[in-house]
């Protein structure tokens, strides 16, 4: 951990994420304005003391909407990656500890899921399940499965032949017990690394879905949705597309930096061992 | 007085953290000599040779009071002059275990590299010479070998190619860094005899690095013994084997099987 | 080698089979009633039944799947509910746009990525390396649709350097056509550059550490020649394999970029299928895109082995 603390990029990542988490936390206690109240008299205002980031096409305060949106972004990021990680871990572990047909089938299925370009799978699921927050969470979660399945598959394969597993097997320990008691604790650090690296990606997909009108639905606010709504006004009032984009970059960059730094330090530790 | 091809004095190498890798090493190689450097892995043999040949990684610190190669003071030469001197005057035969030949380039496109770079002839001449040398090192189908990628050659073949490559510039010195590691005994013997032949017939001096005392005893005129970054003993092979002074050398020698056959071989060299 | 090709083809077919099942199950089976979904809320029972009948949904699901697969393989991909046209035709009409977009963005991305990847490896931990790596991080974090939006505002609408929307086909002139998709291609390329630089940089770094580089020093080669002939050759081959992977990213990005620049490509088609709940169209497009990704990956895998003598001749080793 001390090496991590010395890593400037890691510190930067922590700062960026803290900013967004802070914004989110504050939004529960204080908002400059009601994010959903429309005020047609004060449409498309430039930033001022009253409205720090100005107002949108309905006269809603942009800062407040950005603050509220951070809740969705963080929530969707965390929950969808958790879903993907849990299911992926499970599938990967099963595939690695079984033989022959089951292993082959599971891995082909993961390969198949992997062939869906980023947003495609999510779009397909949303088309079937319908638009909205929960369906977006589910869709992104399913999209995350293959990454975690591949990772846990290779990690478990590495660990499987290690002596302690063999020893546990020779005592007649059940497979579930081996997986939960012995395997999971050893592979968890790598999973957590992937977890932090995936959150940024999940938030990106959420914003893309919302941008396409398939994620968070109006009148609720989401950065992607705000950008989508700004499209009509970009020519007359371009500033509308700036703040949500910047906060989105900050969030994704922050999580990516943390993920990369943790990953690097793990690689180094493994190399040193 | 014989020419002195390599003359290194008081070499000291330390890493970026100031830890010593080589504390004290001095070394000489004369014209028409076969000299061995022995020591366990990590004793600094390879590092010493790399220092002589100007091959140390940049992050290492190196000091020495003298480093003369082929009669020229390396410390006073520019980078370009050094490259030219070593590239054309010294051949290097590496360990067989690692990819010193580029795996994605055919032999014919790499064997003549030094020959062409140092203006000894064009590609056509290089190819003719390469064929001649490959035949000389015992390769029956030199043209086929030239058209191959390294992966298509066996370990013994690759080592012959390496030796032919080292000979391309008619060097005065060949530095061989554990050239027979990872070769089976028969091929090992063939490669060693090939080096000996190059030495005997062409008068090329050889600096031979090995951890195998038996080989050193059999082939080398003089020996340097390295231990933990120091040259702990130096002298004629025979003397060192008969009267080792340093405890490490004694230990090494005591580990050799003392068969009469071995002794006999030592006498004949 | 032949063994590898056969093996790779077989596993590719396996993956395609799974993709077809996944798309089929997700789109036709799980929601229970795609006919209802397609018609929306104002569906009368008679309408639903009629549509069900025409979509071939009145038979058990496995029969539906087999019928669909047979139809698909024989070129009958069904008819779009929204467009009332054959799906295969709809796709082939829009394919040139997306293909040009993908080709142009790779043409932009690859030289940049090679240049920055190699330079950043050569000057590891110098300022230029840090700069390249920062750009890489930023490129990964900036959402493509936002970039597209900003580009549209500034370069197309603002300065008027590029058309705001639409695609000019090749027939009306190569450069006019390129110009019409240059801006969206740059957006897509920026998304591609990050991962490409990353892999080229790391593969160049490992190439520079190889022993053949030591040999070039022993032989006294100039640094330019050592890098140009030896290091680059060792570094350039591994990234070949991920160009196939990049295609997935490009096609995913195309959905957003085509929507923003109003380009009539496959991505737009997909979005319409989703918005209009045209599940048969969606199924066709999704299966088309994923198959393209799988097939291109198989091809790059095989090509990689063909150009890499270490694998091509690997069998002769010792």
Overview of this structure, please?
The complex is a heterotrimer of chains A (273), B (269) and C (318). Chain A has 273 residues and is mainly α. Chain A has helices at residues 2-6, 8-29, 62-97, 100-114, 118-129, 133-160, 163-170, 175-211, 223-230, 242-272. Chain A is elongated, with a radius of gyration of 22 Å. The two termini of chain A are 16 Å apart. Chain B has 269 residues and is of the alpha/beta class. Chain B is built from twelve helices and eleven strands. In chain B, the strands form two sheets. In chain B, strands 7-8-9-3-10-11 form a six-stranded mixed beta sheet, with helices on both faces. In chain B, helix 8 links the parallel strand 8 (173-177) and strand 9 (205-210). Chain B is globular. By secondary structure, chain C is mostly helical. Chain C contains 14 helices and no strands. In chain C, helix 5 crosses helix 11 (240-260) and helix 8 (174-208) runs antiparallel to helix 11. Chain C is globular.
- Average pLDDT number of chain C: 81
- The backbone outline of chain C, from C-alpha atoms, is globular
**Unreliably modeled segments of chain C:** none
Cross-sheet strand order for the largest sheet of chain B: 7-8-9-3-10-11
**How large is the radius of gyration of chain B?**
19 Å
Which percent range describes the beta-strand content of chain C? Answer: under 5%
Oligomer type: heterotrimer
Instruction: Report on the biggest sheet of chain B.
Output: 6 strands, mixed
Which radius of gyration of chain C do the C-alpha atoms yield? 24 Å
Helical run tally of chain B: 12
Tally of helical segments of chain C = 14
């Amino acid at each position: 951990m001390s090496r991590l603390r010395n890593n400037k990029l890691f510190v930067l990542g922590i700062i960026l994420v803290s900013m967004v988490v802070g914004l989110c936390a504050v939004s529960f206690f204080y908002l400059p304005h009601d994010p959903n109240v429309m005020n047609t008299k004060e449409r498309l205002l430039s930033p001022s003391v009253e409205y720090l980031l100005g107002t949108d096409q309905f006269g809603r305060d942009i800062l407040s909407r950005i603050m509220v949106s951070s809740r969705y972004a963080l929530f969707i990021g965390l929950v969808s990656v958790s879903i993907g990680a849990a299911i992926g871990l499970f599938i990967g572990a099963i595939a690695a500890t079984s033989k022959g047909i089951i292993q082959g089938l599971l891995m082909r299925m993961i390969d198949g899921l992997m062939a869906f370009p980023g947003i495609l799978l999510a779009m397909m699921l949303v088309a079937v399940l319908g638009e909205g927050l929960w369906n977006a969470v589910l869709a992104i979660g399913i999209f995350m499965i293959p990454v975690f399945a591949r990772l846990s598959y290779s990690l478990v394969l590495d660990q499987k032949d290690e002596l302690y597993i063999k020893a546990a097997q020779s005592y007649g320990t059940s497979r579930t017990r081996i997986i939960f008691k012995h395997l999971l604790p050893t592979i968890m650090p790598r999973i957590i690394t992937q977890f932090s690296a995936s959150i940024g990606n999940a938030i990106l997909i959420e914003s893309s879905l919302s941008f396409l009108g398939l994620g968070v639905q109006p009148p609720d606010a989401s950065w992607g949705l705000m950008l989508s709504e700004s499209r009509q006004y970009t020519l007359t009032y371009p500033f509308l597309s700036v703040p949500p984009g910047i906060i989105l970059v900050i969030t994704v960059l922050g999580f990516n930096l943390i993920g990369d730094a943790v990953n690097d330090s793990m690689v180094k530790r493994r190399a040193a061992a | 007085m014989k020419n002195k091809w390599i003359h290194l004095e008081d070499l000291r190498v330390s890493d970026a953290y100031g830890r010593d890798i080589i504390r004290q090493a001095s070394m000489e190689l004369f014209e028409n000599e076969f000299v061995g450097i022995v020591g366990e892995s990590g004793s600094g043999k390879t590092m010493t040779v790399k220092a002589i040949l100007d091959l140390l990684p940049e992050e290492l610190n190196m000091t020495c009071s003298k480093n003369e190669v082929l009669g020229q003071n390396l410390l006073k030469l520019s980078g370009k002059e050094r490259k030219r001197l070593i590239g054309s005057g010294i051949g290097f035969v590496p360990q067989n275990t690692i990819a010193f030949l580029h795996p994605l380039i055919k032999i014919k496109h790499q064997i003549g590299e030094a020959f062409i770079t140092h203006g000894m002839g064009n590609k056509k001449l290089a190819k003719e010479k390469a064929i001649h040398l490959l035949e000389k090192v015992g390769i029956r189908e030199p043209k086929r070998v030239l058209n191959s990628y390294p992966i298509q050659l066996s370990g013994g073949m690759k080592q012959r190619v390496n030796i032919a490559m080292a000979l391309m510039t008619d060097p005065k010195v060949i530095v061989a860094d554990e050239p027979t590691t990872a070769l089976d005994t028969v091929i090992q013997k063939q490669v060693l005899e090939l080096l000996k032949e190059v030495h005997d017939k062409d008068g090329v001096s050889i600096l031979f690095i090995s951890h195998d005392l038996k080989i050193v005893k059999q082939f080398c005129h003089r020996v340097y013994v390295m231990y933990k970054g120091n040259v702990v003993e130096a002298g004629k092979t025979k003397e060192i084997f008969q009267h080792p002074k340093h405890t490490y050398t004694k230990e090494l020698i005591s580990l050799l099987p003392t068969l009469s056959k071995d002794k006999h071989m030592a006498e004949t060299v | 080698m032949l063994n590898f090709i056969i093996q790779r083809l077989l596993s590719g077919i396996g993956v395609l089979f799974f993709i077809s099942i996944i798309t089929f199950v997700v789109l036709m089976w799980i929601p229970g009633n795609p006919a209802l979904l397609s018609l929306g809320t104002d569906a009368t029972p008679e309408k639903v039944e009629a549509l069900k009948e025409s979509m071939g949904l009145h038979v058990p699901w496995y029969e539906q799947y087999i019928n669909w697969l047979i139809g698909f393989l024989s070129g009958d991909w069904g008819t779009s509910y929204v467009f009332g046209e054959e799906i295969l035709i709809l796709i082939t009409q829009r394919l040139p746009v997306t293909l040009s977009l993908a080709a142009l963005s790779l043409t932009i991305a690859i030289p940049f990525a090679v240049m920055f990847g190699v330079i950043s490896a050569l000057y590891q931990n110098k300022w230029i390396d840090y700069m390249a790596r920062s750009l890489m991080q930023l490129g990964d974090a900036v959402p493509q649709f936002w970039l597209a939006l900003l580009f549209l505002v500034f370069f197309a609408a603002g300065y008027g350097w590029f058309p705001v929307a639409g695609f000019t086909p090749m027939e009306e002139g190569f450069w006019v056509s390129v110009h019409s998709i240059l801006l969206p291609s740059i957006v897509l390329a920026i998304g591609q550059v990050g991962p490409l630089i990353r892999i080229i940089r790391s593969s160049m770094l490992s190439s520079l550490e190889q022993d053949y580089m030591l040999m070039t020093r022993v032989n006294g080669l100039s640094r330019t020649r050592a890098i140009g002939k030896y290091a680059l050759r060792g570094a350039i081959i591994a990234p070949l394999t991920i160009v196939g992977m990049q295609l997935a990213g490009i096609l995913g990005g195309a959905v957003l970029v085509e929507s923003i620049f109003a380009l009539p490509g496959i991505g737009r088609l997909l979005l319409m299928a989703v918005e209009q709940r045209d599940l048969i169209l969606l199924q066709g497009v999704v299966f088309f895109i994923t198959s393209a990704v799988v097939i291109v990956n198989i091809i790059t895998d095989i090509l990689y082995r063909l150009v890499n003598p270490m694998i091509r001749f690997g069998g002769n080793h010792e």
